[in-house]
Amino acid sequence: MAAAPLTATERASRVKLMIFDVDGVLTDGGLMFTAEGDTMKAFNSMDGHGAKLLRQAGIDTAIITGRKSGIVAVRAKELKITHLYQGIENKPEAFAELLKETGLTAEECGYMGDDWVDLAVMLKVGFAAAPANSHPEVIARAHWVSEARGGQGAVREVCDTLLRAQHKYDALLAAACGGGDQQGLVG
């Protein structure tokens, strides 16, 4: 008799590295251009805080994105996301490089994407997530889908989901409320 498939919570409990796409995930997918051709992006501060909470809890973060942007590099540095892959045409290749760099297995990774270019990596990781407004083919293949749209809290939702699945959410919340310490977060 075959084992029952893992639930999204069981999958989330195993994540040691959460990887994010940018456009449509960390942003709403809109692209604003200056007259000089520079791209501007808007990021959600709650999403950013979620990424910081993951780091506090010992869960590493990464970005793999098809576009190359100085704005994304600045945001990644601000959030202390050390694994940044920009201008990537072949996301599975970048994912394989990331696995080599970190020494993790695909099953220990999560990935949040919103469109077809993300599917090849999403199908390899242990925990595949998607914002609510993702392409229907992505939603159909995700283990978990946020209620929020990309750039509007979807990343924070997935971060909270990982923290809860790994029993680290309550300690972080208690610390934020000024009580308790952060013992037991990393591990």
Please give the structural blueprint.
Layout: H1 8-12, E1 17-20, E2 32-33, E3 39-40, H2 45-56, E4 60-64, H3 70-78, E5 83-85, H4 91-102, E6 109-112, H5 116-122, E7 127-130, H6 136-141, E8 144-145, H7 154-165, H8 169-176
Parallel strand pairs: 1-4, 1-6, 4-5, 6-7, 7-8
Antiparallel strand pairs: 2-3
Helix pairs in contact: 2-7
EC number: 3.1.3.45
GO molecular function: 3-deoxy-manno-octulosonate-8-phosphatase activity
Protein name: 3-deoxy-D-manno-octulosonate 8-phosphate phosphatase KdsC
The count of domains is: 1
Number of helices: 8
CA-based shape: globular
Top-tier CATH class: Alpha Beta
- Outline the biggest β-sheet: 6 strands, parallel
Unreliable runs: none
CATH topology: Rossmann fold
Q: Could you write a compact summary of the structure shown?
A:
This protein has helices at 8-12, 45-56, 70-78, 91-102, 116-122, 136-141, 154-165, 169-176, and strands at 17-20, 32-33, 39-40, 60-64, 83-85, 109-112, 127-130, 144-145.
Overview of the molecule:
The structure is a single chain. The chain has helices at residues 8-12, 45-56, 70-78, 91-102, 116-122, 136-141, 154-165, 169-176, and strands at residues 17-20, 32-33, 39-40, 60-64, 83-85, 109-112, 127-130, 144-145. The protein contains eight helices and eight strands; from the N terminus they run H-E-E-E-H-E-H-E-H-E-H-E-H-E-H-H. The protein is of the alpha/beta class and 187 residues long. The protein has one domain (9-175): Rossmann fold (3-Layer(aba) Sandwich), CATH 3.40.50. The mean pLDDT is 93. The radius of gyration is 16 Å and the shape is globular. A six-stranded parallel β-sheet has the order 5-4-1-6-7-8, sandwiched between helices.
